[in-house]
Amino acid sequence: MRRSTTSVTTVILAITLAVALAACSGAGDDGDEASTDVVSGGTFVKSIAGDPGDLNPMQAVTFDTWEVIGMAYEALVYVNPDGELEPWLAEEWTETGTEVVFTLKDGITCADGTPFTAETAAANLAYNTDPANATFYYGSQVTEAVTATADGNTLTVTSAANDPFLVANVGTILMVCDTGLTDPTALSETTDGTGLFPLTEAEPGASYRFTRRDDYTWGPDGVTSDTEGQPDAVELRVIGDESTAANLLLSGEINASSISGADRVRVDAAGLEFAGVRNPVGEIMFNERADRAVADPLVREALATAIDRDEVGTVIADGEAIPSVSLVVRNPLLCVPDEAGWTLPETSLERAGELLDQAGWALAEDRLRYKDGEPLTVKFIYDAPTPTHAPAAELVKQTWDQLGVTTELSANDAAAWSEQLYQTFDWDTGWVQVAPGGPVVLSTFFAGATPDEGGLNFMFVDNPEYEALVAQAKEASPEQTCDLWQQAEAELIERFDVFPVADNILPTYMSGATFEMPNFIMPTTIRMLG
After folding, report:
1. pLDDT tens for each residue of 110-169
2. Distance from the CA of 162 to the CA of which of 116, 141, 232, 298 falls in 20 to 30 A?
3. pTM of this structure
4. Cβ count within 10 A of residue 9
5. CATH label of the domain that carries residue 431
6. How far apart are CA 274 and CA 518, in angstroms?
7. How many independent structural domains does the chain possess?
8. Torsion-angle region of residue 77: left (phi > 0), alpha (psi -120 to 50) or beta?
């Protein structure tokens, strides 16, 4: 692989986990019907909003990183757009609550030609279950309670504790080949996986290019290197401006782009189809460190109660708000109910003022609130590249101004997110989202260690009721666990540790190509159109 730069900045930003739900599709009512004839060859080009940074799949946490590594790495099982588990590197499996036995497909090789075996898969699990390696998967999908052994093509995974999600947790871990496991530091700038499209050229901040292998035979649904309609190459192009991406999409220069702001109107008018994933765009988090005003649950409740969810939700979801039903939005959608199991407060400025009074924040003659001579100041952060975040934040500020709250708006890029959430902790609340595929991953953010202790609980949440339910859910039977997890999630909402204003569907539009998008674009499903 040729790389134009020798290093990239590692962006440790666990908050921007991959957001997804079952893929939806749609098209505008106008415009010519696109060709459905597949044509092999060419380059499939997709825009990404930012540079992925560190490419190590065992440390990946940002949206853009997951998009890049998803082209080159694969897992034992494939989660389809409906959240169902299908064979991938494993052709079949059997399971109990404490054991799963995978049978790997024959003939799997890495991009460098070396075999990928059950022993390699076992070595991956051994690496991820070692707390000293501090991988993304440790604590969220596996712990040292999980062990693995290999015998020929058979991988046996055992958990010392009951785990009703064992197949999903183990099966969706991206697998690294032996060379990468021997020297994980090398994975920061290259890829070492079994994927159909290994990384062959990288220009950080500009472009990442992948070239199709000619020896691939083990894809989901029988996909091989010879399957008709596949591109010769894939390029993920860094395009930070959404209007520019829309222009390139409409001109046919790129084949796919996520468009969520004002430019969506003209893209829809062109009749382009899209794959959609559920996006918790209006999720509000709070920094509950003892030195922050929002550490007081009365203050959090007051701020949340003052927000007009219909008005703000319409803005932040660009007119297409849908109610949140779960904090779990990524495939495989473990324990997601049909309807939310929580109750959100009725909007009331009067009630919000009463709550602030109870919290000791008195309204002074200058119409601002003070406590012990200090004004109630709230720093509200949001994602600068998300086009709806700024206007929605302005609406929230206007509302809180009426309460006497001094609201400071702060637009963040990726580096600022990392610094504020994991280093300086200089924030109070804002449009901050996590998007896990299951409740166990969710719990690492709300019941796990804080960043100063090496954990992901960047909100510094200490919710004993939630933690008790999490402990029960982890020990429960498969029939009982989801009910307990949903009760635990409700505790987070009702204590105002998190406040879901609105979700929406984030569309990734297609131009001259089709694909499946269960979480991110699935490379083996890309088909070029003539």
Report:
1. 999 999 999 999 999 999 999 999 998 998 889 999 999 999 999 999 999 888 899 999
2. 116
3. 0.79
4. 12
5. 3.10.105.10
6. 13
7. 3
8. beta
